[in-house]
Here is the input.
Amino acid sequence: MPSAEPRITVAMSVYNDARHVGETIESVLAQSFGDFEFLIVNDGSRDDSPAIIDGYAARDGRVRAIHQENRGLIASLNRLIAEARAPLIARIDGDDVALPERFALQVAWLDAHPEIGVLGGQADDIDEEGGWLGPGYPRAIAPEDVAAVLDHGSPLIHPSVMMRTAIVRRLGGYRAAYKHCEDYDLWLRAREVTQLANLTVPLIRYRRSPDQVSNRHIVAQHYGALVARAAAEQRALGLPDPTDRLDVLPPLDALDAAFGREGVAFTVRERLARSLVYSREALQGEGFDIVVDQIISGGARDGLWRLTARLVKMREFTRAARLARLLLATESRVPRVEARKVA
Here is the structure.
């Protein structure tokens, strides 16, 4: 049984993870640091996940299963935050594997560094079958480096993170509008009240899959992340965050009205187009139209001839020809008006 006030609440939301969830649960129960409660939300799974979770809950008193209708990851994570009894929350996903010393290392670091409110670490990548793919992309370590990376993307691996419960609750948890990038929005807001850091060592084995969010919802994920950046810039200016109580983000063309100032949509569109030019999935879908809209709206065009060549290599001949014609037609266009940028 967990202690009356465990040191850690392990928070995991599961949706149709029967293939891997048993391995994940066992990796948590095998931690060298054992003073935790393990809250698992079964978010309306239609496979054997509920039975697997209940089996572990019956055998280990630290595991508590919470069954609900499907409400999505953000609602599930916020329920876990609300029900947490510990001062620290450790995230993990239902298909990843926690390395045995993960909790011990993170608790020791947070005890020694009270100024750190969110602590992640490195990861080793594995495939669908658990085969080792190699070390993951290295993450920034020191708080000042993590803060700098936040201006461009997420410096933390979400399922590796341990965070102080009081800080996450103070921030209101994850925000509904930022589906597929809820963690990045939370880190941007956390930076305003605490420091974020990463350990130098791997804490988890991170499972890579063709079906993961970063592949299936890449345009929505990048768009949400860029709106989160715009919202952080808005807060830095001392202005209200228009996305604070939204369930869905405004469409791109409505951003200026939502933020109450011109240039937000132009900047987000340009950043979005730039973030999608190396994604096959995006360019074969709606991402290509975003690049086209950026050119038509007078955005930067440098490097887009190379994109034409990439489209040819992808055998997207119609799109390559359309892009080339558009670039030729806009060769003599007057450069964009600098006043349209957001400061």
